[in-house]
Amino acid sequence: MRDRTTSTPSLAAQVLLLAAIIVFCLFPFYWMVLTSLKSQLVALQTPPAWIFDVTFSNYTEVLFDNNVGRSLVNSLIIAVVTTAFALLLGAPAAYALARFEFRGKKELWFWFITNRMVSPIVLALPFFLIVRSFGMLDTHIVLILIYLTFNLPIVIWICTDQFRSIPREIDEAAVLEGASQWRIFRSLCLPLAAPGLAVSAIFSFIFSWNELMYALVLTRNQAKTAPAMAVSFMEGYSLPYGKIMATSTLIVVPVIIFALIASKQLVRGLTMGAVK
Amino acid sequence: MQATQDIGRNAAALQRGGRPAAEEAIIDVNRVRAGTKLGFLGPAVFALAAIGLAPLIFAIWTSLYNYNLTKLANMRFIGLGNYAAVFTDPVFWQAMGRTFTMLVIALPVQIALGMGIALLLHQPGLGFLKTLARLSLVIPMATTYAVVGLLGQVMFNLKYGVVNQLLGFIGIDAVNWLGVPAYAFATIIFWDIWQWTPFCALVFLAGLTTVPMEIEEAARLETKSWWTVLRHIQLPFLVPGLTAVLILRTADTLKQFDMVFTMTRGGPGSSTELISLLIQRIGFRAFDQGLASAQAVVLLVITIVLSRLYIRIFYREV
Fold first, then answer.
1. In this structure, are residues A143 and A225 in contact, taking their beta carbons and an 8 Å threshold?
2. Contacts of B160 in chain A (CB under 8 A)
3. Phi and psi dihedrals of B144, rounded to 5?
4. Domain limits of chain B?
5. Are B203 and A8 within 8 A, CB to CB?
6. Which CATH class is domain B84-314?
7. CB-CB neighbors (< 8 A) of A244 in chain B
8. Which chain A residues contact residue B194 at CB under 8 A?
9. pLDDT < 50: residue spans in chain A
10. Confidence of residue B3 (pLDDT cuts 50, 70, 90)
11. Which residue spans traverse the membrane (chain B) (predicted)?
12. What is the pLDDT of residues B169-187, one digit of tens each?
């Protein structure tokens, strides 16, 4: 007699379930790419077409006529510079959290991590007013700075872990040699922490690249990022579905490549602060 | 082991004519001057204070004023007036209610499905297919949230959407997913489940791999029931992951903006207007910065209280 809760489902059932998971995860992505290759006429067919004459005109149009190209460049500049700042400021702080004892360390850690929890709208309101009074709306530097509010914590979180995993004996030996803390950090620990730095850089890049609300509120034309640009296609009555999906594909593909590269660390990065 | 090492190090230190290692370690820590610590930490703390804390204080100041961007001439101090308005405003609490309704429906589904997927992937065998499935799980959670919303608009469209076409194949009539309030709300929940179930699955899978092999194998010899193994052997190792999912999904639902904004703009009516969308509308489309700031401060307080509460419940030992 078989127990109703016997351990493994049969092999065939497993294959079916796995196939269902894969299709379920990938289908929307497939549909996005498919729609991006449809002319407006095909995109507005009912029921939707699965087989049609492929056109790349959506891509050439959004890139060269609709400023999506420039918005992608904006996104790239902002994501790269904010990531560089986050590493520059975050790595030393992470080293201090991993190596030094001081009062208020727990409170400081909690504050860093709380930044992850706060809704961006809470900061978007005052930031808008401040930036507006300085006449700095629609500039790259504003987004670069405000993106540090979530990139700095993620760099600190991942790198503190990484520095903790470097054996203390290494820097104790260096201290005996008379090396300063700064030198130990720069020439000894930083190279050893390279994997952590790389992973946190990938995260910082992905978060900045994906961000929408701040970009929507703080940019108009000059510094408009790609997600904000994609949203601006949604105005008006006849929606250009092909163009919207072409822009979406251009935004998503680099992120997915990065995410797959860092897929082993993805969980660690996304559960930041919530797992000890 | 530790003791042996200490003895060895003490001996080495004494040979050099120095102090014993244990004492040396303490001095070592203290020897880092306060100035050095400040040099390492200062820039990051200063930056976060300047961009993360100062604006918050400014938001609290704004929330005490009648501050409408279209009627700046009327700007004046009204004390807690905006807060009184928030607390008595049914629109605010309805948005809050929708946000928590979404959380309460989506989260258990994400946890249950995620657990099922994790257990399936944790089974031995079918290596290639499982690697493929694990990589596929990365795609939804990596997809730009705004794009997920845009994609939702395309796929759930009444006339041109593929979802209605697929439902048609199994004999279900076309549904106006984004046009009817209740369906629109169901759709954003479904879409949230699509994007974040993989996250739960990967977190639980990571938890399952921390169960020592010997223990799990011994348990499997004892019983054939996967439920017994899950409850008595695997669950303790899954608690940290479960906690993380609970805390982060709560925070992320309170933050939820991009996907819903790009898919429904909060509509039809206000049926999908979650709390972050409401505050964005009041602040940037009604231009009532004072009221929006008060709403944001209330949201911030709720967020902090909830995360403190979670931390107190789950990390009691800290």
1. yes
2. 43-46, 48, 241
3. -45, 130
4. 1-31, 84-314
5. no
6. mainly alpha
7. 150, 154
8. 24, 28
9. 1-5, 276
10. very low
11. 40-61, 73-93, 100-121, 133-154, 166-190, 196-213, 233-251, 291-311
12. 888 888 889 989 999 999 9
